[in-house]
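One such given next:
>
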Amino acid sequence: MLRESYAFYLANEPVHANTNLSVTNKYTGETACKVALADTPVIHQAIEAAVSAFRDTRKMAGYEKQAVLKHVVERVAERHEELSKALCIEAGKPIRDARGEVTRLIDTFRVASEECVRMTGEYLPLDISERAKGYEGLWRRFPIGPCSFISPFNFPLNLVAHKVAPAIAVGCPFVLKPASKTPIGALILGEILAETDLPKGAFSILPCSRDGADLFTTDERFKLLSFTGSPDVGWALKARAGKKKVILELGGNAACIVDEHTDLEYAADRIIIGAFYQSGQSCIGVQRIIAHESVYDSLKQMLADRASTLIAGDPLDEETFLGPMITENDAKRMEQWVAEAVDGGARIICGGKRDGVFYDATILENVEPAMKINCVEAFGPVATLQPFSNFKQAVEIANDSVYGLQTGVFTNDINKAMYAFRELEVGGVVINDVPSFRVDNMPYGGIRDSGLGREGIRFAMEDMTEIKIMVMNNLGVL
């Protein structure tokens, strides 16, 4: 299903330098394939190639960039099942979720192909006072330059796409470090990009060690660093990134408010998916469920009933909902955090057991705010449930977090929906659905410890460009 080995991509070309990185099948624990691992000299070469390529990528016409992006859409569609099964193996992602992620990658590149010919500027009148009479301005966006990308393990295709597609759309060359646990999807994307007419050096895709990746952060030839991953790592990278622009998509412990008089059956169905899809390994997975006291007991029973029916097993099995966690240590961490909460007085509503790399879909109640399972990003299939008595209190509970990524709110009251939009301290508020909901053209990102900047093609394109204005003094000379 996977090849025995995969090359990395240096300046658009595959390089079978070695087979030093073993990628495991997350379900079996066995080695699935070997990948070439880049070292520091190779990363230097990639940066040099990107700097050189910028002379050409910045001049690419809109239709030329659009052709590259459309090629990716077509080829990924042709290789859809191959990419889906690769995700199952390298990430432990159930096949239905894997197919969904490949489809989202197609959406992301399709939107980029449309946006790349819509980068507009503006005529700006400057005669706001007598001294500027006769002056006019025109501004437009220009690509920022070579970009450094570091992507995570949990969405190895679509979170790569959210960096790569806008970079191509604006004409920025890039060097990408995919997650070492899940590099295959990115390398297959490299195969597809190598089929295009991108200028030589426009892209490099380099699995490498964490030590070797230091240049992705510190090298001043990069003009932008985009990192998706844990808050601790992200903020540390920003502190060392120097003068370059930094975009951070970090963690969360997303809350989901369930108000009175809502459709509880629908809310329960969506919360189960939001909390437990791909074993909770999502920064916008439902971690804190905040339910009105009038519906608390009913919702609790509905969630417990639904969680108990989720099928865990081989990600390639069409019936599997819960796949393995990315490592056994992560499953053990969940086991430890739940045990600590129970020791402190929390009660397990359902789940609470580990089997190797698998951890049950688990819901806890009576959880204290300071417990890890509540206040730290769980990144696993565990959610907490607590009641509220009035909507203002629910919003205050949701805001009691160092994170601020997305919040879901189930309510039939438009005034409460607007109150939530105004008062929730997050980057996105999702009404009548879970915080896990994301469409790939929307501005996505967080505040506080959840990051800086926004993804979503048009918004990422803005981050990857700089505004330049031309001021004209109209002398009136014919």
Notes: The first strand starts at residue 5 and ends at 6.
